[in-house]
Structures are given as C-alpha cells and as structure tokens.
Design a protein that fits this description.
alpha+beta; 7-stranded mixed beta sheet
Length: 171
C-alpha cells in the first residue's frame, strides 16, 4: 500500500478528520485511564476543542499533517502549533491500526520537525501519556529529552501527573 503525507492549509474532508480524531481520542483517553487518569471521558469533547482551535494548527503559525492511503482514505495525522515565539508543540500523532507497520508515525514526526525548522523555531515540545512507549521511543530516538511540564502545554494542568513531557533543540 502506498501512503502520502501532506501539510494542508484547510481541512479537505471535515467528516473524515472528525472520525479520525474520534479514533485518536478513544485510544489516548483509554491510555490515560490505564495510568490512573479520569475515566469515561467522551472523545467528542476533545474533538470539539480541536475544531474550536483549528486555526492554531493551520498556517502560518501551525501545521496540520494528514496521511492518506493509496485509495485516498485518511489513515493518520499529526499537528504542530506555536507554543511561544521560538518554540512549537507537537500534538495528535495518530496512525490507524490498519496503516501501522509502514513507519508513518516516524514520518509524521519527521515532517513536523522539518516544518518547525522552516518556521524558524528553535525548540519543539511534546507530551505523551505515561507508559506510551511507542511514542516515547520515537521521540527519544530523535533526541528529545524528558523535562518538567512546560508552561505552554495545551493540555489541562490537572492531567499533568499522567503525562511525560519532552523537548528537543532544533539547532
């Protein structure tokens, strides 16, 4: 199967992205629950928050990366948003199970790092649910290091005990 990653300036298919984000948040919220976080959060809430803040992940101050398979089906995404003038925050790295095994997660991270460099950012920030070794492994391999919660983190502070926070310097 062939896959294509694109950075978009507008959402080409809102329903497809909405459905993908519901799948993403189901996975993340389940992982959050498994490490002691709040249970039974409806994924529609975080997805609505995404739509409210869509402008943050679109150019000029952000990036929305989408992965489509050879049939044009949306199978993955990753976002990048400005955290401060010299730094960005990577969010929402997700690849549907049927598209795993093709290094798409790594490719999405690489594409967002390149976009951050093009935007002139010096630092990239990220967080991942504690114990999410797939994500943490990708980030460590790229030189990200653990840090305390960064003040610009876009996730609710009351969830900070359930996340690992990382950063990498892009210089």
């Amino acid at each position: 199967m062939r896959y294509e990653i694109s950075s978009v300036s507008e959402v080409p298919d809102r329903q497809a992205l909405h459905d993908l984000l519901i799948d993403y948040y189901r996975v993340v919220l389940r992982k959050l629950e498994l490490v002691g976080g709040p249970a039974n959060i409806d994924p529609e809430g975080p997805v609505e928050g995404f739509w409210t803040n869509l402008h943050k992940v679109l150019p000029p101050t952000g990036r929305l990366m989408l992965v489509h398979d050879g049939d044009g089906r949306l199978v993955g995404c990753g976002t990048l948003q400005q955290a401060r003038p010299d730094a960005g925050e990577m969010k929402r790295l997700f690849v549907r199970p049927e598209a795993k095994g093709h290094a798409l997660g790594q490719a999405l991270v690489d594409a967002r790092i390149e976009a951050a460099r093009e935007m002139g950012w010096q630092t990239l920030l990220v967080n991942a649910v504690r114990g999410n070794e797939d994500m943490l492994r990708i980030y460590r391999k790229l030189g990200f290091r653990l840090i305390p919660r960064y003040p610009e983190c876009s996730d609710p502070i009351e969830l900070s005990d359930y996340f690992d926070y990382m950063q990498v310097d892009l210089n």
